[in-house]
Design goal:
There is one protein chain. This protein is of the alpha/beta class. The strands form two sheets. The protein has a seven-stranded mixed β-sheet, with helices on both faces. Strands 6-7-8-9 form a four-stranded antiparallel β-sheet. The longest helix has 13 residues. S-adenosylmethionine binds next to strand 2. Pfam families: Methyltransf_25. Keywords: Methyltransferase, Transferase. InterPro entries: Methyltransf_25, SAM-dependent_MTases_sf. GO terms for molecular function: methyltransferase activity.
């Protein structure tokens, strides 16, 4: 049984769209540009509540979605119905991906590949991605190296209003396991009604980070080639100061 790392359920799933509300985001154009360059069916892994998937479908892109969280997928389906969209969604873990189709583009936004915190499972996920690509297809995998992530204190991350009018306050703390390249992040969700704290819930997530040569070798190990590393959503090559970067790699034509 695989772990649902990140706990994209409970308050995390319920509040996701409070923090990510809208139709256009900093990464929206980027994936569209890359899908345009390699036309064909696309797959968003870790599609969540459809932040990107639903606007892409509205615009006529052929994109399907995979996520391991029932609650995130339920929310995606509900929003899709309101927009008269019928997305093809699969409830699967990327490390066990087993779909009836192959895709021209597979993308994993918001660095969700890092949620596969176990090294062997991450390798397994890459082999599944490769197997689900058409010849000449591309994967797009954003990653980051955590900065200042060894914090003892709790830092307020964001706050918002829930559907019942109560307030929600999210704080986080984090630690790193340097040579394992794993960050453990704990998020605390506090529900406040009036002036009373009525509930506190904690969620733990582990994120595995990678360095550029390491991840390049991992991709090569599974047969990927034409590997590019962008330093951001403007698609410019990564420079040495950047700790957020986006891998793009292709499956060879047969
Ligand atoms: C940060 S959210 C991103 C959601 C969406 N892609 C977006 O950009 O708004 C991460 C999503 O990845 C999903 N996820 C986490 N681990 C996963 C795994 N191993 N396989 C498939 N989905 C996973 C979570 O359930 C969650 O919906």
């Amino acid at each position: 049984m695989l772990d649902t790392n990140g706990n994209y359920r409970g308050y995390v799933a319920e509040t996701y769209d409070i923090w990510w509300n809208g139709d256009t985001f900093f990464d929206t154009q980027f994936y569209k540009r890359l899908m345009d360059e390699v036309p064909g069916m696309a797959l968003e892994i870790g599609c969540g509540t459809g932040r990107l998937l639903l606007p892409y479908l509205s615009e006529g892109y052929e994109v399907e979605g995979v996520d391991c969280s029932d609650e995130m997928l339920d929310s995606c389906r509900k929003k899709a119905a309101e927009k008269d969209l019928s997305p093809v969604l699969y409830r699967q873990y990327m490390q066990e991906l087993d779909l009836p189709k192959k895709y021209s583009t597979i993308f994993i936004p918001l660095a969700s590949f890092m949620l596969v915190a176990d090294r062997n499972e991450a390798m397994q996920a890459l082999s599944k991605l490769y197997a689900h690509l058409e010849e000449g297809g591309q994967v797009i995998i954003p990653l980051f190296i955590p900065q200042n992530a060894n914090k003892k204190e709790w830092t307020a991350a964001h706050s918002g209003k829930r559907h019942d009018g109560s307030d929600i306050l999210v704080s986080s703390t984090s630690s790193i396991h340097l040579h394992e390249q794993v960050q453990t992040k704990i998020e605390r969700y506090e529900i406040i009604q009036g002036h009373s704290l009525v509930e506190t819930k904690f969620y733990t997530m582990k994120l595995r980070w990678y360095y550029k040569y390491e991840f390049t070798m991992m991709l090569e190990k599974f047969g990927f080639h034409d590997i590019s590393i962008y330093g951001g959503y403007d698609g410019q090559p990564m420079n040495d100061d950047q700790t957020f970067f986006i891998f793009r790699a292709r499956k060879q034509h047969g």
